[in-house]
User: Fold this.
Amino acid sequence: MRLLPLSFAYPCYVGHYCCVGRLHRMSMGFIAYSLLYSIAKGDVFGKDQPIILVLLDIPPMLPVLDGVVMELQDCALPLLREVIPTDKVEVGFKDLDAAILVGSMPRKEGMERKDLLKANVAIFKAQGAALEKYAKKTVRVLVVGNPANTNCLIASKSAPSIPKENFSCLTRLDHNRARSQVAMRCGVPADAVKNVIIWGNHSSTQYPDVHHAMVNVHGKEVEAYSAVKDDSWLKGDFISTVQLRGAAVIKARKLSSAMSAAKAICDHMRDWWFGTLDGEFMSMGVYAGGNSYGIPEDLIYSFPVHIKNKSWNIHDGLPVNDFSRAKMDATAAELVEERDTALSFLSQ
Ligand code: LMR
Assistant:
């Protein structure tokens, strides 16, 4: 039996910080809604881990949360001991073991990127401060709301007594997208592809890299470049497809990714809790301090990581060619700019 405390809670934001019923706002709600069932039935934190779910939202959303609570009760899930809907941070963040911060201020029509960052700095500063004040010091925090990397950095800076290593942002969705693209191209199941990497920002500058990926073709592990046999696709359309996939889903669905985002959140948290498989790494946005890839420190940057005992380590020593170097640096440069703008608001 795993010895985790019973108070095992998640603030999940169902819709957030947006007054009008824009599709984007609704879709953030869809992510949390898609996520709750998997967590509550034990797919993420284990089949013997009792769970208390805390659902934190803004006051106008409380009636909606009541409906979600009813549905969770109606699922009759044995692990789910309590669901706490609240609009109060002192309740929402109290004694948390894991925090999944799904909501953020979405970009509204005519909004400058700088204004978007400013609004999100205010949100993630407040959430970081609430984590600092109310959560356990061992809490593991996953930031999903965009711009996820920089929001995560701000939350971490606002919670100085919680180790930086306890903060991460979601790039597992991009990782899964890359894995699946290669698998479809090779005609193999998605789990036959391993060790793709997402470097950098969860934005269109991210670098999906398959130079170190392996594909299991008819029982034999082959390097992705040999399995795909189309270098120009791997260096061109593959990269842009993954980089722009979120926008393509929004264009088609008129809503942003929810099912796949929730699945990626579950993958990310499950691996953080139970570890990655031997010989495999996963992509995760983590604190860049002390990395061996020459990425500027004091960023939340997506790296290949191994996880053991709930601690991640960047997979070091992968050779980086000129093609990759340029793309890793370009996404780092975007993050430096985002960080510097965000920090100028943080100090105001
Ligand atoms: C995604 O990657 O699907 C989302 O981050 C896109 C978005 O802007 O919501």
Q: What stands out?
A: The chain has a mean pLDDT of 90.
